[in-house]
């Protein structure tokens, strides 16, 4: 064993320790990628013992898989809590979820604003407190009794008076179903609904009437009671009716809703469909108007999005790794082109396209796209591939030239036999190197670690890109629209779509299955000299290898020239092939 290999073996214990440390503290992933890459380089080349590289790869892969399996349950619980918080934010009332000890599990935006504004409730050392010691004791007793089942009620109300000229805060404390997560499995969680005259939730009046069979007058009174009026006399005065009339309405309301008290009525209304007005829902929870899908011959769902003019020439757009499932570009106005009908096929595992366990090839995806175009009765089309989408676009042009009018590649990546590693940012370079050695399962674990870190820290994606970015790329990344676009992507892919992202990341190291010199379709390549993600040499190499390809060189714009020059690219495409 030579000295170089012996030194590497001494360092393996530190690397294994870093693997397990990163599974707990995922922001250390850049260091892990770097150290693993440097470690495996010790075993490359003629001077390394035969089989030693394979042995070390197996060892590291086993530790990677084992370390991250330990975190799988906790990871899922964290994601479920995040989704629950997103759902709670759709409610136009304050909601706080606690455990039996009044420790806050989560709260929605309305509850946070109410706490900051009215001070009847507060959170101290992650424990929910009321405005006086007596109210805090009472609040904690109610929470404990409901959690352990010692209360005979299914919910308890509490009014917190804040002083002269201050609104009274009414809260309704109720149990939630047991949670199937380790930290909550042995207890009932508690939901606390906050009602105040300063918090006026919006209702869908027609839904409220129809759902409970109320008259217009009964609906008006019900809404008034749940908008901060704390007794019937106050409610009657607010809407301008006599107390006698209000009591008559209340009897009928109780009969129709099968409630026996005003508190019970308020809880029922606040958890009914009437409070979820359609225009309050986040777009994430609605079908998007551009989303479509077909069923392929093998039974898989194949999703796609459409933009632009449905009556214009079809343009198949092969998306980059980072892309929104709500819009084509950060600047929405650019995608409303009149010259093309833009169709965006979603690769397996993205958006509403089914994932498949076997690794699909570029040819496989091209076949799916052809089935899509035939379903849409499209005979010929242009194809544009951006960044990671370039291999997919190139495959479509190579395998189906009779359908492809033209091929446009923007800031493209290149096949793995073209070495551009020295020009890549460190994290990309390390991942590319590791991709040559590690098995797919281990690479998927690494990809998931990177995504989880960025999901937990949404600004990390932009910050890391900013470190090695060129000047024009930094200008682009500072835009709020771009930041929102990137954050939406990371939130939409983790954790359900990590397999799809991992597969797409590895497109840099998988053989394309064809040679560039055999692409016969008219081709244009757009690339900027200051691109730091897919270096300029990639565009030059593709242009020189594809027969009759034309290159458009931009001095500035970096990797994001598609977003900056989308209209220009489409205008040139239209004029070249019309």
Description:
By secondary structure, this protein is α/β, with parallel strands linked by helices. It has 4 domains: 3-72, no CATH class; 91-196, PAS domain (Beta-Lactamase); 206-279, Arc Repressor Mutant, subunit A; 291-419 and 512-577, 3-Layer(aba) Sandwich (Rossmann fold), CATH 3.40.50. It contains 21 helices and 15 strands. Strand 1 (94-98) and strand 2 form a beta hairpin. Helix 1 (3-24) packs antiparallel against helix 2, helix 9 (232-239) crosses helix 10 and helix 12 (362-375) crosses helix 13 (390-399). The chain is globular and about 90 Å long. Residues 3-10, 178-186 and 277-287 have low confidence and may be disordered.
Key traits:
4 domains; 578 residues; Beta-Lactamase; alpha/beta
Q: How many beta-strand elements? A: 15
* CATH architecture identity of the largest domain: 3-Layer(aba) Sandwich
> CATH topology of the largest domain, which one?
Rossmann fold
Low-confidence stretches: 3-10, 178-186, 277-287
| Rg measurement, Å | 30 Å
Taking the alpha carbons of the first and last residues, their distance comes to 66 Å
Broad shape = globular
* Lateral arrangement of strands in the main beta sheet: 8-9-11-10-12-13-14-15
Mean pLDDT figure? 80
Sheet with most strands: 8 strands, mixed
Number of domains: 4
Name of the top-level CATH class of the largest domain? Alpha Beta
- Percent of sequence in beta strands: 5-15%
What percent of residues adopt helix (DSSP H or I)?
A: 40-55%
Number of helices: 21
Q: Kindly report the name of the CATH homologous superfamily of the largest domain.
A: Alpha/Beta hydrolase fold, catalytic domain
Structural class: alpha/beta
